[in-house]
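Q: How would the structure tokens look for this protein?
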Amino acid sequence: MSRTSLFGRIDPATDAGHEDPPPRKGFFTDTSVCIGCKACEVACKEWNGVPHSGLDLLGLSFDNTGALGADSWRHVAFIEQRRPPASTALLVLPADRTAATAGDGTGAPAADRTSALSVEVTAAPVGIPEAARSAPGEGTGAPVGIPEVAIPGVVSGSRADLRWLMASDVCKHCTHAACLDVCPTGSLFRTEFGTVVVQQDICNGCGYCVSACPYGVIDRRAGDGRAWKCTLCYDRLKGDLEPACAKACPTDSIQFGDLADLRRHADRRLAALHGAGVGEARLYGHDEDDGVGGDGAFFLLLDEAEVYGLPPDPVVATRDLPAMWRRAGVAALAMAAATVAAFVGGTGLRGGVGGGGTT
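A: Here is the predicted structure in token form.
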């Protein structure tokens, strides 16, 4: 294990011992074009044979998954907000997707397939067309997207300014993965694509990985005891196929490809949104100098990370291990020195007292 494997900028596949690995793969999830259809959740479960997690009515909008877990490797979050951003929103699917695969399973660059789907909305929150924000009979057209029903607590006669933030969450496949670092059996391993995968036939269900993950992603399956999480469809990657969730996404909100290309594409997308007046747009998990060395699955968000249930400053639990061991070593040496000094001092004191008594 190299000295820098717990922190710093590294190529995780090379650091794990893979010789001449392929370019690191990953996800870029652009939440500004997520429509909350949950096709990714269904495709993930079907391809990977993930058990159904039930149809729980959580009372949280249309979110019946709640969070990532052993039986939910993809989770589409629905966040309802009444406060619209004070900006001009650009409801446009990214036209430049040369970083991501075309979705045909070949890994070829995607063509410009989205320019015809571009829709510009002035002075409206992202996620709600202007017509949908007008009261019945007002505006330039019939309301779209929001039913004509009264909203509890809202004065009748005008529609509330609402928006839905939707985001498909997934394992981040961290550059420095604490789950992998603490696994005592080697069940978690780093693939040649830089992703992190669990080998269930080796997992002993100790749960160390569960408590180590800064995102709360990995979990043990009830009735099974072993840890399960997203594999970024490792079997499909080995066959040069796009992961099932990205393949199924109808708006290309989930984009798959070489991580370096995805990061450059994300920078361009962020600049485009800022240029359109969406100043609240930001990247999450994009920074290679953050507490986990950057994520293999990162996001473009339209609000603070906490709004989406994501930690604002995740840190790999094992990052400070070298410093902790150094401090423990210094403390042990100091304790040993104090013990020796006390023993020597006590022996000398007893000898002095005895000598005085025989005189």
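The helical segments are 12-15, 39-48, 178-182, 208-212, 234-238, 244-248, 259-275, 321-357.

Residues 321-357 form the longest helix (37 residues).

Upvote if useful.
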